[in-house]
Design goal:
3% strand; oxidoreductase; RNR-like; Ribonucleotide Reductase, subunit A; 2 strands; 314 residues; two-stranded antiparallel sheet; EC 1.17.4.1
Length: 314
């Protein structure tokens, strides 16, 4: 636990000190390294050109439009969800006196807001003004269970009880599953569509930029769950594994596979992608049991798969 920076009194909250003017920031912490990369790779959703996407959209079949709109809707709502639900994690880091984490997480939240904006701008450019809620509820009950219930429940519980156990459950849900499995699987589906048919260059660029940001977000989650397990032991490991398996079970039990998929996709494509991502995240949790505090402190962005240059598909 770092030195607390806030003091809660009956008459209100006061700052005890500011790290910037007392001991200074530790630029070598993992969160600060991510923060510096995020500044360098800044991008603006308002500057993405969707004019060619609008022409491509007109050429798609009804089934293709519905399928693509389904994925876009899941991402659009999901990005708004993670932008909102990260707030208790920031508060937890403030309470722990981890200013470097707070600085990075505020950038993190800003990026999630940009992601929601980018998908909304895509829909606006196509003049899609319908209520798309059905894609995030009735059509995808697994999504409704996780994004409408599980994610906010575990994140906002931190406001009441920010214990290491609850923090581990929150990070496992937010960073390792929502971002590290659900979103990552969606990126692969998007890229299959864009690359195989050479369509939607604006949305393709958007997805690549978002995936670049998300590589930092997932890396932060990997860093944090590893630190929690190293500092608190096997009980935290068990909590993380239990929550991760719970989320896997929710998706497996509530997913409704489509009999026929457009864009040359198959059910096996999605299942295999998700399986690989699940195994990768479980490996992260299991590896933490064998790590030392010194190894956690020495993490580099490259070690945790952070994309350090923007790479756009041609």
């Amino acid at each position: 636990m770092k030195e607390k920076l806030l003091e809660f009194r009956s008459e209100g909250v006061i700052h005890k000190k500011f790290k910037a003017t007392s001991v200074g920031y530790d630029w070598n912490t993992f969160p600060m390294k991510l923060y510096q990369i995020g500044k360098r790779l800044f991008w603006d959703p308002a500057k993405i050109d969707f004019s060619k996407d609008k022409e491509d959209w007109k050429k798609l079949s009804k089934d293709e439009k519905n399928y693509l709109l389904n994925i876009v809707s899941l991402f659009m709502a999901g990005e708004e969800a993670v932008a909102v639900d990260i707030t208790p994690l920031i508060s937890t880091m403030i309470n722990e006196g981890r200013v470097e984490d707070v600085i990075y997480l505020e950038q993190f939240a800003f990026e999630e807001a940009k992601h929601a904006e980018a998908f909304r701008r895509f829909c606006d450019s196509l003049e899609i003004n319908d209520d798309l809620t059905i894609f995030t509820t009735e059509y995808n009950p697994w999504y409704q269970k996780i994004f409408y219930e599980e994610l906010p429940s575990v994140m906002w519980k931190l406001r009441v009880d920010p214990s290491p156990e609850n923090l581990a459950v929150a990070v496992t849900t937010y960073n390792l599953y929502v971002e590290g499995v659900a979103a990552e699987s969606g990126y692969k589906t998007f890229k299959h569509i864009f690359n195989s048919l050479n369509i939607m260059p604006g949305l393709s660029k958007t997805v690549n930029l978002i995936a670049t940001d998300e590589s930092r977000h997932i890396a932060y989650g990997t860093y944090l769950i590893t630190r929690l397990i190293v500092e608190n032991g096997e009980s935290i490991y068990r909590k993380a594994i239990e929550q991760f398996n719970k989320l896997v079970g929710i998706v497996q039990s509530l997913t409704r596979p489509l009999a026929k998929l457009p864009f040359g996709l198959t059910p096996d494509f999605t299942i295999e992608n998700r399986k690989q991502l699940v195994n990768a995240r479980l490996t992260v949790i299991e590896r933490a049991l064998k790590m030392t505090p010194e190894q956690v402190k020495s993490f580099s962005p490259k070690d945790l798969g952070v994309i350090e240059e923007i790479k756009l598909d041609k």
